[in-house]
Amino acid sequence: MIERLATSGVAAGGLAAGGRATLPMAALLACLTLVSISAAIFFGVADLPMGDVIDVFSGQGSPEARSIILDIRLPRIATGILAGIHFALAGFLLQTITRNPLADPSLIGVSQGATFSVTVFLMFTVYIFHPGSNTLAELPIKWLPAAGLLGGLLAGGVIYLLAFRLGLSALRITLCGVAVGAVLHALAIGLISGWGSERIEIILEWLAGSLYARTWDHALFLLPFTVAGLAMLPVIYRPLTLLQFDGTVARSFGLAYRRQFSVALLVSCVLAASAVGSVGPIVFVGLIVPHLARFLAGTNFLLSLVLTILLGAAIVTSGDLIGRLLGQAEEIPIGVVTAVCGVPLLLVLLRKTT
Questions:
Q1: Which residues in 129-145 are b (16+ Cβ under 10 Å) and which e?
Q2: Which of 66, 220, 241, 302 is at 20 to 30 A from 120, Cα to Cα?
Q3: pTM of the predicted model, to two decimals?
Q4: Cα 262 to chain centroid, rounded
């Protein structure tokens, strides 16, 4: 039995493994990702002629066109691409190590931890001292992503410690994540409904998941985590192919199960927490994208991983564009778009795979 599992799991991780997709499929998805990015650049609420957009990239163009493209559209596109990669990869890692097809960042409490910390940050007056002065100043809103990241990582750490004390396993991580996440979500909703705030609109927009008003600061905040996460993939790739199986089976291949499980969990937590802190809990991306990638790649584990990255960037970028075009000035948050589109897509995938 172990030999059969090794053949179907570890060997399937190579590019030679069979599946519904091949390398041309990966190339096609890469092209579609570029098309979605290009469409997001050329189209938006402000109706810019295509020639004006091209002029901007040639170093010319009117000040208005340059401002719209360079200061509004490109920053939110870059932020969306990075956030999409984070959510998709985090979901892929979690579904792999927990062997739970419903796993996403909310399952381990990261989204709820970030939600709670952002709610506290926005609702309560937080002050710092000016250097050399006795006056107080409110913490700037640009610290919001850091607040979300910190809350998400703390929640993930608490859940890990609870599961570790009970004997670390995929099931215990899941159960602890659901329990702690439910408590943190209830606390956040209780704060919002009980106290209210002049920043309640910002909180609700953030909870819906949105790329509205995202700047280059948000993209630069995410970039180091993206680079670190992608750099870790070659390191944890082989352990991931074994973590698909039960701990006993994985250990029989010489895998340090607890250590590798912890490393993969840490990578997923950092990716998810940084993304949630920057753009809010965009639902269904971490859940749907890995399923769609595996449906296209079949048993090819490596190809599934590559497609997950490409699809994460493409779906978030396309979803944001749809929300902008449909909502116009009152744009629809991307979290709403992914939820509305994600449910029927999940049902279709379930029907195809069952």
A1: eeeeeeeeeeeeeeebb
A2: 220
A3: 0.88
A4: 19
Sign of CA dihedral 175, 350, 322, 269: positive
User: Tokens at residue 332, please?
Assistant: 């629809």
Q: Which two tokens stand for residue 156?
A: 């993930």
- Rounded CA-CA distance 225/207 in Å is 22
Q: How many residues are recorded in the chain? A: 354
Could you tell me which residues are beta bridge partners of residue 128?
Answer: 137
351 vs 354: CA distance, rounded Å: 5
Residue 118 CA to residue 112 CA, distance in Å, equals 10
Separation between Cα atoms, residue 309 and residue 314, nearest integer Å: 9
Is 17's pLDDT higher than 90?
no
Q: CB–CB of 97/265 below 8 Å?
A: yes
pLDDT score at 10: 39
Q: Which domains does the chain have, with CATH numbers?
A: 2-100+205-353 (1.10.3470.10)
132-161 tens-digit pLDDT: 555 545 566 788 899 999 999 999 999 999
| H-helix or E-strand spanning residue 9 | helix 2-9
- Average pLDDT (320-334) is 86
Cα distances from 130 to residues 71, 124, 127, 301, in angstroms, run 30, 19, 10, 52
> In 3D, which of 180, 206, 172 has the Cα closest to residue 192?
206
Most confident of 37-46, 51-60, 83-92, 286-295: 83-92
* CA–CA dist 322, 337 (Å, integer): 8
Which residue has 């352990």 as its token pair?
239
Consecutive H or E run containing 136: strand 136-138
Which backbone phi and psi does 129 adopt, to 5 degrees? -85, 135
Q: Are the C-beta atoms of residues 170 and 258 closer than 8 Å to each other?
A: no
Q: Which residues contact 192 (CB under 8 A, 6 or more apart)?
A: 119, 123, 200, 203
Give the three-class secondary structure for 49. Answer: coil
Q: What is the pLDDT of residues 195-232, one digit of tens each?
A: 766 667 778 888 888 898 899 999 999 999 999 999 99
